[in-house]
Design a protein that fits this description.
162 residues, alpha+beta, Aminopeptidase, 3 helices, 8 strands, globular, binds coenzyme A
Length: 162
């Protein structure tokens, strides 16, 4: 079931309005498949952490369409065990509406939520093709680049202190 998170993340100029919503894990699978599992070694769309009670799936709905997704997992970064961490996974925007600010708004909503939940930092294993998106939103790279074995894509870890 899709639940609106609130009016705080609506902009008056949106037609129809884009609304940040919470999602069930299964509702993320279509965009995960079409955006994140094209040209990758793995085609799996389910994450092991999807159904943990403290995992949150946030998306952006515009009218009847789900146009962006993200998954927020309570997990400390292995190199920052002293910091209460939330891992962001499965961040994706429908190609038809990319570059219109929806990813940034979704990220901000998730960061607000992580902060309110007491997290010290949010981190992600970012594809190098999306690195500049994260850096523009205040994340920093951490450590060396690597090729993720499941997707076969080059990545860097990125961290945003809250
Ligand atoms: C990365 C992604 C989620 C960004 O979503 P989006 O809705 O297009 O992002 P926004 O429109 O809010 O963009 C915010 C800013 O980041 C920039 N940006 C967005 N995607 C970018 C990318 N891949 N590389 C560099 N800059 C990017 C935008 O140009 C914009 O810059 P501006 O503020 O100067 O205008 C989207 O491009 C996507 O789904 N990519 C494919 C899947 C992917 O790589 N996901 C991340 C996995 S780690």
């Amino acid at each position: 079931m899709i639940t609106a998170v609130g009016a705080a993340h609506q902009l008056p100029g949106d037609r129809p309005p884009a609304v940040v919503v919470t999602l069930e894990a299964v509702e993320t699978h279509e965009l995960r498949r079409s955006v994140l599992r094209t040209g990758t070694l793995t085609t799996a769309v389910r994450f092991d952490e999807d159904d943990r009670p403290d995992t949150v799936h946030l998306g952006v709905r515009r009218g009847d369409d789900l146009v962006a997704i993200s998954t927020w997992i309570v997990r400390r970064h292995p190199d920052h065990p002293h910091l209460a961490g939330v891992q962001l996974r499965g961040m994706a925007t429908d190609p038809a509406v990319r570059g219109t600010g929806l990813g940034r708004r979704l990220l901000e909503a998730g960061l607000d939520r992580a902060r309110a939940g007491g997290a010290d930092m949010v981190w992600a294993r970012a594809r190098d093709t999306a690195l500049d998106f994260y850096l523009a939103q205040g994340f920093e790279t951490f450590g060396h680049g690597y090729t993720d074995p499941s997707t076969g894509l080059d990545h860097h870890d990125v961290i945003r202190h809250l």
